[in-house]
Amino acid sequence: MPAMATPDQNLDLVLRQALEDTGVPGFSAVVTRGDEVVHVGGYGDGVTERTPMRVASVSKSFTAAAVMALVDDGKVELDGSVVAQLPGFVMEDERASRITVRQLLNQTSGLADFTMDVSALEQAASLEEFVAGLRGASLASDPGVRYRYCNANYDVAARLVEVASGRSYSEFLRERVFGPLGMGDSRVGGEVPDGFNSAFGVWVQREELPAFRGGSGDVVTTAADMGKWLISQNGRGRQVVSASALEVMHSPSAVAEYGMGWAPDGDGLLIHSGNLFTYTAVEAISPRTGYGYAVLVNSASLHDAAYGVLQALVAATEGREPVSAGGGRQTTELVLGIVGLLAALLGVFGVVRAGKWARKRAGRAWWRVVVRLVPGVVPVVVLAAYPDLVSVLMNGRTVTWAQMTYFPLPLTVVVVVAALAGGATVGARVWRLWLLR
């Protein structure tokens, strides 16, 4: 009788299949249960469980832990105002004086991308400089009344860690979080190998966009280290915050489900994802089953592969039907490629046939001609407003043109091609009408 596969072997098979399904260059993953690591490994070219990866906004749970450790120490007052505890945090909006530390971590402070100059803030050289740069910003709402995801909340919180502890944010995490948990390969900032973007099915290695990430997204770690973090966050093993502080981190605020670097996903998990422009990551813990999961991916595309792999792992550990981690990236990019090609062909056809189009409409009322030109103008307008339109879809998060040339590259190419095709067609038709006047 053949030996039965161990849980570790089963998860290895699931992850090997996930690598094939997603087609990403590589990822690492860890699964824990109780105080043990059930499986950890790296998949793809040159990726191991100790390959350093940017984890982007997964960093927020580490910043929250740092703040709560200082709350345990009596050095930070969770429901005290930030202004009273952080010299240098001054805003023109007088409501900022009412922001509490809890509201920063719950993302209910009123801070929002669209009320500050995010581009200028990303030029900051330190957390102190970042906080000083908020002086001219305003709030989108009164503190404590509305949830808005905004990285500035956690960058301010990280600066509070520095002031309250007398150590840099990086040093504090190393001494109070990474060190005690044995996360020897984890750090704040530093270089990692360039990640990848998918361009119509081809993975292109690219340097990460420069940006100030601070306490909101600058942790670099490994799957092996994340296993130790997950065990701790599930209340097992060595703890870096008190049990009551851990409960607060995992609990929703008074106005939203988001806790402090963690949020429920509807399936009994507490979860947080991280998305940069060449790296993606996700972490999750299950208070119900005691499982913990982390997936770190060295690429970014229109499909969040990290979340797809997580779903496959959760299904496997809970004994449910296998779930594909693929998510349809290849299909999406194929469809976009076809749309872009059709747009280009229509543009060529429109320019070539512009003379015939103009002769047919010469002498007609001007408004009738304008109406017929509108379809060609629409993609030009979409291109002009492209980052702003994406910003609206992302609930007001700041979006730049440079960002749109990274993981959304296939979509951006199609928008540009459609605009060029539409603009060329409209231009040719107007020129031909002018010649016939």
UniProtKB/TrEMBL annotation:
Keywords in alphabetical order: Membrane, Transmembrane, Transmembrane helix
InterPro entries per the UniProt record, alphabetical: AmpC-like, Beta-lactam-related, Beta-lactam/transpept-like
Membrane-spanning residues: 334-354, 366-386, 406-431
Protein's UniProt keywords contain Transmembrane: yes
Residue ranges occupied by any Beta-lactamase-related domain in the UniProt entry: 14-306
PANTHER family: BETA-LACTAMASE-RELATED DOMAIN-CONTAINING PROTEIN (PTHR46825:SF9), D-ALANYL-D-ALANINE-CARBOXYPEPTIDASE/ENDOPEPTIDASE AMPH (PTHR46825)
Identification of the protein by name: CubicO group peptidase (Beta-lactamase class C family)
Native organism: Saccharothrix variisporea
